[in-house]
Structures are given as structure tokens and as C-alpha cells.
């Protein structure tokens, strides 16, 4: 008997060291499969009939079936196997897939000849990686107009289209499948559950991925499948392997559920610690206590880079509610800035947008909540002009006018990558020219989260034009900090106003000029806007560092995981002996 068998305790030892790695459970499942097909998951038994004698019987049976015409001519001839990827125990052997199995064994059936009450399997019915059957439908449940493949109970069914999805199951009944699923049928009875897991093993997935590179819809070709090496253990050991794999996969299921529960609790605690900072009923005198608690709990609760997104959102929400910096009674109130912006708007004879009219004033309740010197406004109140961009077709001709598009408004910044250029005349260039401090807003997109996102135009984009799915908001940059407006646009207050009315829209989701103009938020004094922007920039830089630290920790855990799994798969002989 060998001494390197894996058990639940040893698996848990590995897991405990890498449990915080982002893909720990998935890697652990692959690890179990890798051990299984290398003969390192269960002990070998000298009393088992060795696989070499199985190969002789398989070859004899294949020749008999070829002689009796039970298999196709292409299957009758032995194939040359590719070099094996690793060594196997002495009682195991490698055999070419085509020499061990009839690959794509199912006869093709015209859709009009399908039996109504028989199983009809599609790729979507199988869960990727796990081989779990998600649903089992009959021919009568599906409107099928294409040719299907037949399969028998006990066949291993392998999804050859996009094989990296690793969709492999054992048929528990006869039926039909899409021709993108092939039936794999051994010449001599083997344990189907072992065959299925062996076709899901990591080195085979790597092999089929390499063969499918460079194509949009990769599929495993028959000629590549039949020459692939297949790890064949003694028949008795196949049963022991499957039993052990089932046991360890069940353990992985429990670990995954425990991890999911732990992360849910963590997320709820994080949300609870932050929500008190922005809750409408949080009293001003209680705010420092809630803030101190959130900051103290943050290192413990924040363990994943994606959790930083919640922190960033909280910072913006605090900023636009006057809770991030102190107010100063000496600041010139926001009402003065609004008067000057209105003067600039009235003086702008070329503006292409109308200010929203007849809108109700802020409620008395909202007005009472406003910090000193702040005003409740709508976007149209702070706009000198708002207009759509050009719908003219743009291309790669750099001699034309550069035109910013949705891809150039990303993560709150204007990027000049992947630029397009359009044939604009002088008047169009003048009307659509961007200026430093303009705000570009996305007005139409298929993604709810992208609609309404914006970016402040930098000096490098000065004079460039912009495309029709964008809106340019121009304000008086002497009396308004556009970066503060960008923060307001990304706060939950405005995101709710944008998303709720269009959430149920089908296809493209749109916000027009009037709807943009009606978006309401709180405007602080200009001096406080500058202080808020500086504070937010500093806190966002802190978030960047925290996110980078978490990413580095995640990378370290992933590398530790790889090292541990490599050590488990390729242990030194003396290490194994010492461990036992």
C-alpha cells in the first residue's frame, strides 16, 4: 500500500492555510481531482488486478467489435497516444482515449424521429466544473429542430463545445443530446463515475484549452480527443477513488457554504457599521461615535478588494451631505455662487439646453437638514449649458476632429485611449468643443450602472468634440468646483434618482437633458466644495492603498495556495516518509 493517500484531515490542513485565497474552494476541488487521477488520493492494493491486464482485455474487445462490425471503421484502428503528462503508480497505465473508448458513440437522429417521452439533454442543463445536472427535460418539453445524438444509460456525456466549461456527466438513462455533447462509451465496462471525473481532471482541461485557442467558439476536435492520454487505474481502485472524491467534494461543499456564510456576515457587519454614518435619522452629535466605530471595525471586516467599493461609496455619500468636513460660517454661501452661475447662463447666447422650469422647491424638512451655507439645487441650477454630442460617424482618420465616446469616460476619468475622429465643420467644432472643467455624462447604455456616470474634462481634452451618447454639462468654473458635482453625480442620492425610473427599461437605458436637469442634490459654499474635494481625494488615495494591500495579500495567499498544492502533488520522497 502507498502512504500518500489524502484524507479529510489533510485536506483541511491545506485549506486552513489558504482559506482566504479568492478561489480557494475551486482550487481545492481541482486539487482533489488532480490527486485522484495521479493515484495519490487512495491507497493502492497489491491484490487489485493491474490496469495493464485491463488494457489487454480492452484491446481484444475492440478488435472483436471491429471484426463484427459493431463499431465504425474510424474506431477500428488503434491510435498513437500523445506523451503522458506525468508518471502513474505501477499498477496503473496510460491509454489513448481512442483505444479505450468509442468517442462520440451516439447515433445521429433526425428531430422528427425523436421519442416524445425520452430525455433530451442540452449543454445548459449541466453545471460547469461540477458535473451536476441542473435540470432534466424531455423531448416534449423542448421545441427541437436540429439533429440529435443518442446515448445509453452509463455513457459518459462530454460537452465538446467550449470544453473549458468542463461539463461532464454520467447518463442515468437513455436519451438524446445536442451534437455538441458526445457520448463516451468504453469497449470494456469501466466505472463510469471514475471516467467522468478523469475527463474533468485539470491536465485534460488544460490540454483541451490549448487545442481550442484562437477561436471564438472553441470545441474539442475528435482527432485531438482520441489521441489524448487517459489515466487508467485498476477497476477496484476506480471505485475507491470515486468514493473518496465524493467524500472530499462533499467536504468542499460544506467549506464553501461556511465561507459564503462568513462573507455574508462580514458584508452585513460592514454595511451596518457604515450605514449609520449616512442614515437620515443619525443625529449630528452621534456621528463621531458611529464614525469611530466604523473606522475601528474596518480592518477586521474589510478582507477583500471588492469591499473597498462600499467604503468609497460611503465617502461620497458623506461628502455630499456635509458630514465629511466642518462647515465655516465665514464661507460665502452657496446662494451667492448660484446667482453668479445664473448670470453666466443668461449671458451665454450659444447654449443649447433649457433650464428646468416650474419645479417644486426643496421641502421644508430637507431645507432644515441643510448644513449652514448650503442650498438644495437641481443640476439645471448650476448649468451654464447642457447639450448632446454629435451623431456623425467617426473612424480612425487622425486628420479629422478627435471625438470622445463612452469608452473614453471610464472610472470617473476621461481617457484618451482608443480615440475616434469625425468630419465636423467649423460650426460643429465650435458648438461641440470641450473645455477644461466641463462634465461629460453618459446618457445612454445597456448597463444600468453605466448610465449617468461622468468625468471631469481635463486640459488634455480641451477643444475635442464628444459623441451623441454623451451630454456636456458646462458650468461657471470660477464659482463651482466641477469635481464636487462629479462626486454628487456618483453619490447614492443621485444614483437612486437616475436608476429607479429606468431600472425596468428593456434594452438601452436613457436619461435625457430634462431628466439630467431635474437631478437634485445639496450644494455647499464654494470654499467648502474645495475642502470637500481635497478631503475626498485624500480618503480615496487611502482606499487605493488599502485596496492595493488587500490585492497584494490576495496574491500572496494565491501563491501560497499554489505552493501548497504543488508540494502535495509533487512531494519529495523523504518529505512523504517523514509525514507518515
UniProtKB/TrEMBL annotation:
Residues 245-272 form a coiled coil. Residues 341-368 are annotated as: Disordered. It comes from the Bacteria. Residues 371-550 form the Type I restriction modification DNA specificity domain. Keywords: Coiled coil, DNA-binding, Restriction system. Residues 341-351 have a biased composition (Basic and acidic residues). GO terms for biological process: DNA restriction-modification system. Pfam families: Methylase_S (PF01420). This is Type I restriction enzyme EcoKI specificity protein. Belongs to the type-I restriction system S methylase family. The gene is hsdS_2. GO terms for molecular function: DNA binding.
Amino acid at each position: 500500500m502507498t502512504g500518500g493517500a489524502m484524507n479529510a484531515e489533510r485536506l483541511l490542513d491545506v485549506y486552513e492555510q489558504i482559506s482566504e485565497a479568492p478561489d480557494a474552494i475551486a482550487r481545492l476541488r481541482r486539487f482533489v481531482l488532480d490527486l485522484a487521477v495521479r493515484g495519490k488520493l487512495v491507497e493502492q492494493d497489491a491484490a487489485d488486478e493491474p490496469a495493464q491486464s485491463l488494457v489487454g482485455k480492452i484491446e481484444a474487445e475492440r478488435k472483436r467489435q471491429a471484426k463484427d462490425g459493431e463499431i465504425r471503421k474510424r474506431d477500428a484502428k488503434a491510435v498513437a497516444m500523445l506523451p503522458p503528462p506525468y508518471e502513474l503508480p505501477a499498477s496503473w497505465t496510460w491509454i489513448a482515449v481512442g483505444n479505450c473508448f468509442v468517442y462520440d458513440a451516439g447515433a445521429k437522429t433526425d428531430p422528427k424521429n425523436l421519442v416524445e417521452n425520452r430525455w433530451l439533454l442540452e449543454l445548459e442543463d449541466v453545471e460547469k466544473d461540477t458535473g451536476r445536472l441542473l435540470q432534466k427535460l424531455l423531448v416534449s418539453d423542448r421545441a427541437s429542430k436540429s439533429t440529435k445524438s443518442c446515448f445509453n444509460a452509463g455513457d459518459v456525456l462530454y460537452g465538446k463545445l467550449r470544453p473549458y466549461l468542463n461539463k461532464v456527466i454520467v447518463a442515468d438513462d437513455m436519451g438524446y443530446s445536442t451534437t455538441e455533447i458526445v457520448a463516451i462509451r468504453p469497449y470494456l465496462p469501466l466505472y463510469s463515475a471514475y471516467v467522468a471525473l478523469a475527463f474533468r481532471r485539470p491536465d485534460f482541461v488544460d490540454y483541451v484549452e490549448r487545442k481550442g485557442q484562437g477561436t471564438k467558439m472553441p470545441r474539442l476536435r475528435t482527432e485531438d480527443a482520441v489521441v489524448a492520454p487517459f489515466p487508467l487505474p485498476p477497476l477496484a481502485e476506480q471505485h475507491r477513488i470515486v468514493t473518496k472524491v465524493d467524500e472530499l467534494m462533499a467536504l468542499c461543499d460544506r467549506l464553501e457554504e461556511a465561507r459564503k456564510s462568513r462573507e455574508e456576515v462580514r458584508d452585513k457587519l460592514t454595511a451596518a457599521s457604515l450605514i449609520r454614518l449616512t442614515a437620515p435619522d443619525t443625529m449630528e452629535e452621534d456621528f463621531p461615535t458611529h464614525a469611530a466605530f466604523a473606522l475601528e471595525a474596518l480592518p477586521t471586516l474589510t478582507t477583500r478588494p471588492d469591499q473597498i467599493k462600499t467604503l468609497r461609496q460611503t465617502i461620497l455619500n458623506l461628502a455630499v451631505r456635509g458630514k465629511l468636513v466642518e462647515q465655516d460660517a465665514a464661507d460665502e454661501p452657496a446662494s451667492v455662487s448660484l446667482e453668479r452661475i445664473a448670470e453666466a447662463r443668461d449671458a451665454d447666447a450659444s447654449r443649447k439646453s433649457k433650464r428646468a422650469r416650474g419645479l417644486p422647491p426643496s421641502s421644508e424638512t430637507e431645507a432644515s437638514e441643510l448644513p449652514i451655507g448650503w442650498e438644495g439645487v437641481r443640476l439645471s441650477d448650476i448649468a451654464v449649458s447642457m447639450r448632446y454630442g454629435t451623431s456623425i460617424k467617426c473612424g480612425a482618420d487622425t486628420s479629422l476632429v478627435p471625438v470622445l465616446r463612452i469608452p473614453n469616460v471610464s472610472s470617473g476619468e476621461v481617457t484618451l485611449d482608443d480615440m475616434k475622429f469625425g468630419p465636423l465643420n467649423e460650426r460643429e467644432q465650435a458648438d461641440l468643443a470641450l473645455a477644461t472643467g466641463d462634465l461629460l455624462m453618459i446618457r445612454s447604455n445597456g448597463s444600468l450602472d453605466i448610465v449617468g456616470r461622468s468625468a471631469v474634462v481635463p486640459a488634455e481634452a480641451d477643444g475635442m468634440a464628444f459623441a451623441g451618447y454623451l451630454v456636456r454639462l458646462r458650468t461657471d468654473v470660477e464659482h463651482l468646483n466641477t469635481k464636487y458635482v462629479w462626486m454628487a453625480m456618483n453619490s447614492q442620492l443621485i444614483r437612486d434618482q437616475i436608476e429607479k425610473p429606468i431600472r425596468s427599461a428593456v434594452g438601452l437605458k436613457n436619461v435625457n437633458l430634462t431628466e439630467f436637469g431635474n437631478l437634485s442634490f445639496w450644494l455647499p459654499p464654494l470654499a467648502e466644495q474645495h475642502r470637500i474635494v481635497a478631503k475626498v481625494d485624500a480618503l480615496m488615495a487611502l482606499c487605493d492603498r488599502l485596496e492595493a494591500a488587500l490585492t497584494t495579500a490576495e496574491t500572496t495567499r494565491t501563491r501560497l495556495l499554489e505552493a501548497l498544492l504543488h508540494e502535495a502533488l509533487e512531494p519529495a520522497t523523504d518529505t512523504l516518509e517523514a509525514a507518515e
